[in-house]
Specification:
The complex is a heterodimer of chains A (66) and B (347). Chain A is an alpha/beta fold and 66 residues long. In chain A, strands 1-2-3 form a 3-stranded parallel beta sheet. Chain A has one domain. Chain A is flat and about 40 Å long. The longest helix of chain A is centred in the last third of the chain and has 19 residues. Chain B is of the alpha/beta class. Chain B has 2 domains: 166 residues, Rossmann fold (3-Layer(aba) Sandwich); 123 residues, no CATH class. In chain B, the strands form 3 sheets. Chain B has a 6-stranded mixed beta sheet, sandwiched between helices. In chain B, strands 7, 9, 11, 12 and 13 form a 5-stranded mixed beta sheet that branches. Chain B has a two-stranded antiparallel ribbon with strand order 8-10. Classes of the chains: A alpha/beta (66), B alpha/beta (347). At the A-B interface, strand 1, helix 1 and helix 2 of A face helix 9, helix 10, helix 11 and strand 13 of B.
Amino acid sequence: MPVVHMASIVPISQSVGANRIIPTVAIPHPLGDPTLDAAEEKALRRKLVEKALTALSTNVSEQTVF
Amino acid sequence: MSYRIIHYINQFFGGVGGEDKADLPPEIREGVAGPGLGLAKLLGADVEIVATIVCGDNYCVSHQEEVGAFIVDALRKHDAQALIAGPAFNAGRYGMACGFACAAAAQAGFISLAAMFPENPGVELYKAATYIVPTSDNARGMGTALPPMAALMGKLLRGEKLGSPEAEGYIERGVRVNTFYEKIGAERAVDMLLKKLRGEPFVTEYKMPVFDRVTPRPAVEDMAHATIALVTSGGIVPQGNPDHIAASSARNYGEYDISGVTDLQAGSYQTAHGGYDQTYANQDPDRVLPVDVLRDLEKEGRIGKLHHLYYATVGNGTAVSNARKWGAEIGAKLREANVQAVILTST
């Protein structure tokens, strides 16, 4: 089954061998941004997760950063 | 002080037969058999092989619980201190059997040691659990395999302090030990760099792990009907961290049921991770594990469903060998649950 890795430091995702990679916001809050208000923050998170679903729905032949 | 040990060998070296006898259940013989004859001469006067366990390779690999109990029981009954296994050379199932036998003995508190070819699959599986002496890839190397086995077993029995794996002649187990040096780390690092620049040989003090590569899996074709699972190394756990996942160098992972949970609330979930500022994850754990958004997408029919279990550990100084093992376990569980894809989040 395909796996998408959502993390902030892309070179680490690459070195551990993730094939589908979504760069995220920051180490302590990869899928959030405490400086935004709640609605904006959730919209940001949704955008990233939608990107992850796109990555999972896309065939790749090598390590790919979406 | 004299020592009593048991020798573990397979059906072939026990003289029972070849592949056709690989289903032989474990049996115990008093005294030495097969390669134990040579080993006994090398072990020294204070070490006696009191018994030999002979077991079929297939039987051992497919009845681990029973064989493990048999071995521990035999060690106790014979009042033995240690188990020595093999050498297995490059025989894969024999190597796995020797490694398993030693791991079972070690777990019960006995000294244990196996010997096999470094590329035997038993090495990767059991090198952390027992001492493994490297051998050649076939039984012609018996003569060179036995002396280092006997020497290391003697040291272990006598409780002598062991040097590095290279110095003692066993395969590196991934155990870190503290050592005092004359020079501080910065000086040693500069020395090493200068050697590297001059093209001279140098020995690293900390080997970087070699990471796996996996062939990319095919895409999910029908996301609207797919089950998606969440896995994280960011340490999101139910409040109170019920599985006591360590803040660093984690020794385990947790499996948590999020049936009916639509949003990870502060106070119900938290992070156990000690490698980043926990403030933001504790305020809103969805910032690490996006359950809220996936529930929305599930309700809207964008995904079939969010798997009712999620898996979490702490990726902070965690041993790669542990992470690899847990990854394989989690993957097997998700496959069994017919999950089609995984979102893995890391901090």
